[in-house]
Automatic annotation (TrEMBL), chain A:
Signal peptide: none annotated. The lineage of its organism: Bacteria, Bacillati, Actinomycetota, Actinomycetes, Propionibacteriales. This is Iron-sulfur cluster-binding protein. It comes from the Bacteria. It comes from Nocardioides luteus. Keywords: 4Fe-4S, Electron transport, Iron, Iron-sulfur, Metal-binding, Repeat, Transport. Residues 472-500 are annotated as: Disordered. The keyword Translocase does not apply. The keyword Cell membrane does not apply. Pfam families: Fer4_8 (PF13183), LUD_dom (PF02589). Residues 73-299 form the LUD domain. Gene3D superfamilies: Alpha-helical ferredoxin, NagB/RpiA/CoA transferase-like.
From TrEMBL, chain B:
Transmembrane segments: none annotated. Residues 24-35 have a biased composition (Basic and acidic residues). Residues 110-205 form the LUD domain. InterPro entries: FTHF_cligase-like_sf, LUD_dom, NagB/RpiA_transferase-like. This is LUD domain-containing protein.
Amino acid sequence: MSATFVGMPAFPTAAREALADSQLRHNLAHATGTIRAKRAKVVEEVPDWEELRLAGAALKERALLDLDAQLVRLEETLTANGATVHWARDAAEANAIVATIAKQHAAEEVVKVKSMVTQEIGLNEALAEEGIAAWETDLAELIVQLGDDLPSHILVPAIHRNRAEIREIFLRKMAAAGRPAPADLTDEPAVLAAAAREHLREKFLRAKVGISGANFAVAETGTLVVVESEGNGRMCLTLPEVLVSVVGIEKVVAQWDDLGPMLRLLPRSSTGERMNPYTSMWSGISPGDGPQEVHVVLLDNGRTRALADEVGRQALRCIRCSACLNVCPVYERTGGHAYGSVYPGPIGAILNPLLRGVGHDDQIDSLPYASSLCGACFEVCPVRIDIPSVLVDQRAQVVDAHRAVSWRSVPKPEAAAMKGAAYVLGRSRRLSLVERLTGLGVGLARRFGLTAWTGARDLPEAPAESFRAWWERTDGGRDASGNDAVDPAGPDEDLRKGDL
Amino acid sequence: MTDARTEILARVREALAGSTVESAEAHPETGRASEVEPVETPPSHAPVVDLFAERVADYRAVVERCSAAELADRIAAALPEGPVVVPPGLGIDVPGAVVDDGTLTAADLDRIAAVVTAARVGIAETGTIVLDHGLDQGRRAISLVPDTHVCIVREDQIVPDVPDAVALLDPTHPLTWISGPSATSDIELDRVEGVHGPRTLHVLITPAE
């Protein structure tokens, strides 16, 4: 049984714990630094990179804005190619469909290609409840699964583990899951990879049912695409008799030719390679080659909610490359677990609230604030998702959701502060009164509270005199003698002036 | 209760009410044509072939160029000890090789050391070989399970970049894009060649027939 993100604390709490872990920070800084450099090098090679990003964004956007027609077309072409198409409104429906197919074939185990969407729906846990073992076959996913751990990166889910920790996990846990690790296992990456090869080979060779996601689904031709590195994907897509692919409805692209730009954008953005080692494409069933029973589960699970959000809808263009994680100064310091979701980093900070809605879960509501809005994520996004703009819009939605809860509910301190500010700023007389009390307020705050604010920020010194008071006293600086004086103006004078 | 298909499609239509594809095309950020201009084919094909050879080798694959007459010898030299499988329509005699008739199981293939196949397309820019699993390449399993893959690419099959390859490929075939041997960077992002796919990729580039 693997760990779960359910019940994770809100981002600030989780981030504080992560920041205290110096080993984690070291692992992350090394990994994100390496991959940033690799990406920059291969992106530099492409003279038309910006045009390519525009093309990628446009073709995904067009498919999304025509999604109903594209999905119907995809269903037609997949069916014509011999695949069986299922539709699932939510995680429970999708999991039930997969479990039913596995049971029809009396499968006690399935082999899995690395897939974000099956993690999103908790497929492994759902299958375990039905007595079906789901084996992760991607090396990083295997490390996470054996270690009873949680993924912390979209591309490299075990990015938070170093080689010594991985060796330890293999030695302790592989035996219970199948072929044990060799006793003389070292922590050389090549040796660890070889141990994974030996451990998984028997599972590939005997598997009756394979499970995958898809990076792209081409409506025109009924083709699914899986992009990978190790060959575990090819194994799962080729050797089993039955293949079930769970595909989010946003994965659809309209035309076969759309794969040209997408396959130029994805590997360079993701692993920082000109091309990933293996890409598999299949259109339903090929007689005599690969699985002869092919299922595709088209999943909503909040995607139509995101689609209805006109600002946030662009997040559905995401091709899960993880470039935004690798450049994010927040992710680099906190790692993925602090986001409490299989989708961490900047994209997770918008995707989770968009898929699940705001206003009902403090953890989700905290995510749009897990950003400094520096914009690095937008700069690298291969499909030009303007993550900072969506973050700001999501913040507004979080505030609105809390405003609307009920007249009886206690307002959040931020909402109360904003209300107070609106009152004070609405009349200059109120403002001048408050300006004169600022010094006192800052002193009190420093002494008695506002720790949530001051825990991460310095509270500025209150000036001895406000700008408006200074202007009033010196006639906008024209009274040269006033320049040196810092005594605040008397209250009577200011009040007499009334509204400016 | 409505079925999931009806409900999801209704939700999609509701979500998109008021938005049209045309509105996307008018959007300044995404208003460009979706087609990226294919890289212009240079007057001579030689630079494309050279680039292909160089980029495949970058992935730590073995790359050799040889004439059609030398091919049989080069294949023999590339093969490791042990059984070899070839697709039914390879068209080159590989002495001692098992010709796949579709009956070899995954476990049978696991006892085979190497496979020799042709290819459908080579992509110079990315050093990628694409198999469409025609008769000279065989079904997907035979080029996956054995640990050494010897792959023959003809110079006239090599195109400049990815969109050129997509335009040539037929999606009714299963397609496997191969860029170097199996690899992983999952441990500290340290690239290691050789996980589940063939750990040795040996590419033989021959002139057009």
